[in-house]
Amino acid sequence: MARGRIWVAGGAVALLAACGGDGNPPPVDPASPAASYVRTGPWNQGDSAALDGVLRLVDGCLVVEAYGTTTVPIFPSDFVWDPREQTLEAFGLTLTVGQPVYLGGGMTTGPVEHLPAGCAGERFVVHSGQSEPREG
């Protein structure tokens, strides 16, 4: 009987990791319009510069548009793209094309593990996010 419990617990842990927990991150999805990287640390830790704007799908690439500029957010590979719903989801956060996004991270010029062909503009590595505006 203990084996069944251990197997179920192990299955639950594997399921949580696959659903965007802080366990081992999945590889990048080459079919996703989101530029991405495989994170090496926990979600919500890292640079804390803000990127606020509207999430758009432009030329097959997810971008954030704000104040006349276009920025390519580079998400952890934990984020899963739903083409039907036009959403990107992980860590309890759902980002929807056409809606405002509030991301934390920092600008980068370094290499990206997955960069869709249509992605152009400055790059912002995402370390955190929320679905509501920041206070203050």
Automatic annotation (TrEMBL):
This is Lipoprotein. It comes from the Bacteria. PROSITE patterns: PROKAR_LIPOPROTEIN.
